[in-house]
Amino acid sequence: MTSSEPSLWERIREARENGTVSARVIAEARLLLDETRASSDARLSALAAEVIPTAAPDHLVREALVQIQIREEAKRRYAEAVKPPMEPFDLGTLEDLLARPAPPKDRIAGLIPWEAGTSIVAQRKTGKTTFTLNLARSLITGDRFLDRDVRKIDGNVGVLNFEVSGAQFGQWAGDVGVQHDRMVVANLRGRANPFTHPDHLESLAAALRKHEVETLLVDPFGRAFAGTDQNSNSEVGRWLQELDRFAREMVGALDLVLVVHAGWKDSGRSRGASALEDWPDSIITLTRGRNDVRQVSADGRDVEMEPSELIYDTDTRTLSLGGQVTPSGGDEDLLAAVVDLVNLEDYEPVKVGDMEQAVRDTAGLRVPKGGLKKALALGEQRGLLAVQAGARNAKFIHRGGPSYDFGPLG
Fold first, then answer.
1. Can you give the residue range of the structural domain that contains 114?
2. pLDDT at position 317
3. pTM for the whole thing?
4. Where do the DSSP E strands lie in 229-342?
5. Are residues 127 and 248 in the same domain?
């Protein structure tokens, strides 16, 4: 630097007067301030401290704002450039639609429709992961699933595993006999949820599409959900729409299966918003019945499976279907069945034991231990029937009238 070159202070004063303080000058002033604070030169320290607060005039703020806007616009253009092309709308006249080749009716006959969204609603400890792995194996091999015909997939099964560790999932899948090169697993337990990061979701979709995923399993909803309130129909509904778009448009899958934990109070319904019940084409329900018996049932669009026993082979982790399970009748259901019989035109009073058998035969209800005691007491309280002593103190059920005292209902 020559003696004629202005000093830093002179440049700062001149810039302040002209309103042209540059970022370089500001940086130099800050550096000098740090240096002079440690020295005994109080004058220099004071000068540096005076410069810094006034070293960011409006024109610099405007320049910085422009730079931010440039960066954001660059990000937007880059995202637009790498975004996969949007598929054309499936649009046509009714004549066009009817002229198309008819698609298959089911993926699994009477259980999962073609191109369906399916929920597996599982009560705790009913083996939902084992169930989904058995389902995946049948989709890959075409083997029957729960005694139902399966249309095997041409591609692969993809799994978003939020539930168990990768090692545990791999061990179970191997035990079930899933073909190793036909299942693609994204282990997401304890990791950032891709549904909260659009760029992560796009990367995941690209990877699954590369592996030609035809059926996508998401386990479970509670951890995959990206909202703040699982009981909000609006939040859950929006997320389910995003899940559908992710699976079908971004991944290219035909089948989407979402595993949902059942509520604590009602083991047959999804835990959370009612939107979870409205979304699927098929709802497969896993519960534990009396004597700890695993049960499976299904309901939906052209789907119906009555509650049936689910038999689990502990050695192979495979499942098979047992006999149909007769539902236990609640007191109100049992009472309704009794009243229907009592009100028949040709009804004549029968013994309580005979009525129990008639309820089993006509209503298909299982009469619980203790028989119809509570149901009959409720009926008498409401004046719907009467239980009266007959020959040899046998109890007979009549229409209406005075009641027989069954004692406390509790």
1. 106-324
2. 82
3. 0.62
4. 255-261, 282-288, 294-300, 303-313, 318-324
5. yes
